[in-house]
Specification:
CATH superfamily: Tetratricopeptide repeat domain
Number of helices: 7
CATH class: Mainly Alpha
CATH architecture: Alpha Horseshoe
Order of helices and strands: HHHHHHH
Distance between the termini: 43 Å
CATH topology: Serine Threonine Protein Phosphatase 5, Tetratricopeptide repeat
Number of strands: 0
Strand content: under 5%
Largest sheet: none
Radius of gyration: 15 Å
């Protein structure tokens, strides 16, 4: 990878994160997980909180597609914690939506509905309640 050769850690992590959905769409979930975990290690190392949150969110979607809902929820909650911490409303809303779909997919309809209400409130007010 060129970014690895020129030692641009932020771009290297971004490249790993961007390749993961490709592998996931090809059904290569293990490879997607591997790339996301590489991105996660780098983002933590360089203290890139947004990249870290994105990596956790993407790992959550990988595990959701594998039907590993507990693991998916764990990663998505980690992402949501970071997005709230850094105040990234766009990624925050995306985490809420993904968590809502996750809860819906394993029959936690009330929890999914609560998340939708929180998301709607957040979008209207621009702040978290």
């Amino acid at each position: 990878m060129i970014t690895k050769e020129i030692e641009n850690k932020k771009e290297e992590a971004s490249s790993y994160r961007n390749l993961a959905p490709l592998f996931q769409s090809l059904g290569e979930h293990v490879k997607a997980e591997e790339y996301l975990k590489k991105a996660l290690v780098i983002t933590k190392e360089i203290e890139n909180k947004k990249g870290e949150a994105s990596s956790y969110k993407n790992l959550g979607t990988v595990f959701q597609s594998l039907g590993e809902y507990v693991k998916a929820e764990e990663y998505l909650q980690k992402s949501l914690t970071i997005t709230e911490e850094i105040g990234n409303k766009e990624l925050d809303a995306s985490c809420y939506q993904t968590l809502g779909r996750l809860f819906y997919s394993f029959g936690r309809y009330a929890k999914a509905e609560d998340l939708q209400k929180s998301l709607t409130t957040t979008e209207k007010s621009g702040t978290r309640n």
